[in-house]
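Input:
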Amino acid sequence: MKQRWPGFALIVVLLVLWEVASRQAWVDPLTVPPVSSIFASWWEGLVSGDLLSAVGPTLRRLAMGLALAVVVGILVGLLMGTVPLAYRLLEPITEFIRPIPSSAYIPVAILFLGLGDEMKVTVIFLACLFPVLLNTYAGVRAVDRVLVDTGRTFGVVGLKAIWQIVLPAATPSIMTGIRVSLGISLIVAVIAEMLAGNSGIGYMILDSQRTFQVAGVFGGIFTLGVLGYLLNTGFLRVEHRLLRWR
Amino acid sequence: MRTLGARPLSRQSAELPAPVASPAPAARAASGPRSDEDALLVVRGVSKRYAGARSRPVFEGLDLDITAGAFLSIVGHSGCGKSTLLRMLAGLEGGTGASGSIRFRGREVTSPPRGMIYVFQQYEKSIFPWRTVMENVAFGLSHQRGEHLGSRMRQARRYGEDGPAPRMTAAQIRERCREYLDLVGLSGYEDYYPKQLSGGMQQRVAIARALVCEPDALLMDEPFSAVDALTRASLQQLLLDIYHRLGLTVVFVTHDVDEAVLLSSRVICLSGAPAGVAVDVPIAIDFPRVPGVVRDDPRFLQARDELMDAINHREESGR
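Output:
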């Protein structure tokens, strides 16, 4: 904490500057309301539960899409990393789908899956899949030959070797992939909510903007900042626990 | 009082199946090895070449018998194929480009056989960094004993009569691991992760992990070449002690002739590619050995000179 206070001090200074700029009408208070009124409306939303009822659906979709991406990504990554035929079969299609921005297929997803959670979870899943998959694959390929041979000399081969040697050895790389996906998942969740549906933080921000509740827009953005911070902190804890041997 | 010293040494001979008919009579006649079907490891007419058009054979028509209880060292120039030979003995080298027969306890070696553990030169890559010292040692034990294999039925089907001993409880496994950690001088480090240990200690973990399986044969590929001189001396002493106490069979690859003569009951020197056994030197110094005393023994000096001559001779003729 000691080394971090300058960063926090900067945030406070900027917020004060914002407050003053808005109160002194250096900027239009209608488009940039004072920080104090933003916080007041944010606090109101928090106390009334409106904010939580917006955060809830977003978190749920994010968790489902990400969890699905982690499971499928690790499984397919392991398969591609250990079975050459699977790699040759799946590599071209991965390389083709991967560069497409996931927001681009939201319209298609709406067409097939409607405006509900299925569409949003699917889009989040697709966006989160490739970082996990490719990092798992890379991690599996990087497992040292000596480690695998050590397993063999002790009679640990096949699925047991994958579970007990390859997977733990690839875990640092897999965690890197999950961390990237975590960031992406929040972005895609918000975009999907803005384009379709009537719940979640993304919808809340867009709805506030349409009804000229500028404080609500900033409140939603601030909420996303807090959410992202908390998600990352939680992730780092899990990572630290899993990789405490490093 | 400790079960360690009371290990039944007769296990090897008791489990030896009936001798298998000897293959490749031509190869045997050519180099005329003694007919030693009771050897623990029998190598007959083994040739190996790496894939690739311009590859020379690494060795050709190699014959070797390793009797139970021997400490055999393989020396030779780097690149002479001694590590390749060891990997083949361990069943780690793929079958490509290889011919001939390697039998361990009378059975053809096609994959790493039970009862044989290979200790790698790169200990830092061979021990599992995500497992504690205790978990690393237990890894070998639980798998060699078939702990996680499910039903006893399946074990029996897989391994037959000389299969794993009855399942051990977690407490028994820990107890056994502690004994061997104590043996290699790592008591008190059970819960450390490998990165917290020095190189020499990591190699001790690898040795304990191999020994805890109570293998019939321990195959070591330059196990002490990556540690400093002082650590190396203490690990050599450790290996001498363990070899004497447990009555192991050790096959040891090194480029250090002094080390080979100091540790071994027999040293062979591989000639250059395609390699065969250039010289085969028995070291008739009694065990237990004290390094300081052995190094002054005339038999030590004579064996060392003989091996050095063999190595230098091939160097001259190779130029």
